[in-house]
Design brief:
Elements lengths: L5 H12 L8 H15 L6 E8 L5 E3 L4 E10 L5 E3 L1 E2 L16 E5 L2 E4 L7 E9 L11 H5 L1 H16 L2 H26 L22
Parallel strand pairs: 5-6
Antiparallel strand pairs: 1-8, 2-7, 3-4, 3-8, 6-7
Helix pairs in contact: 1-4, 2-4, 4-5
């Protein structure tokens, strides 16, 4: 069966478990599986951009729902362009009280923090890793679409302790580790520089002794 939605993932897990008494626990297993996947994967497919707006005088912005890890922050210009801000450790945020245009950012608890209060309303773009969080209202995501096997075997691995079958538990764990390895390898390939066709070396001329060339 296809595994493209939260409901289909639950149905697939029930088919594999073949335990009617565990059906009600499957959403719990999926939640635990997502906690593991969020810790294990830093794949490009989890990267998203969120537009945020800071009011005059604001020095912090609440992080958006689903935030897992920051990657970069840009400030938006009036001409539509954006300029990257510098990341610094929270402890190095200068205690600048004079309002101005932020030049640096950090993460402070549940907030995106700047090196100074904004002197006007600014727009920002936060590039981040988003959490994998399926639900009835969010029935799919990039990971489920790209790697349903990872979702399924992560779910079954969390259910394994209830099965009291070490061999089966090991098989689920092995399949999960293989799926995670494949995802990470694919992501690494997508980030690696590639030689463009126009950069390939030109073939050498063949010497034809009969023509003297």
């Amino acid at each position: 069966m296809a595994i493209t939605t939260y409901a289909e993932l639950q149905a697939a897990a029930a088919n594999w478990l073949v335990r009617a008494d565990l059906t009600a626990r499957i959403p719990e297993f999926i939640t635990l599986a997502e906690a593991r996947l969020n810790r294990s994967l830093r794949a490009r497919l989890a990267e998203v951009e969120q537009t945020l707006t800071a009011a005059p005088g604001a020095r912090t912005l609440a992080l958006p729902a689903g935030f897992a890890e920051p990657l970069a922050v840009w400030i938006l210009r009036s001409d539509g362009s954006r300029c990257g801000l510098r990341f610094i450790e929270p402890s190095l945020l200068a205690a600048i009280s004079l309002r101005g245009e932020p030049a640096a950012w950090s993460i402070d608890g549940g907030s995106l923090a700047f090196d100074r209060p904004c002197d006007q309303a600014y727009g920002f773009v936060l590039r981040m890793l988003a959490k994998f969080q399926l639900s009835d209202t969010a029935p799919t995501n990039a990971l489920l679409s790209d790697a349903p096997d990872a979702y399924l075997f992560a779910t079954l691995s969390e259910a394994a302790p209830f099965l009291r079958d070490d061999t089966l538990a090991q098989a689920y764990e092995s399949k999960l580790e293989r799926a995670l390895s494949d995802i990470n390898a694919k992501d690494a390939r997508s980030r690696a520089p590639r030689t463009l066709a126009t950069d390939l070396p030109r073939p050498r001329a063949v010497f034809d002794i009969t023509k003297g060339i």
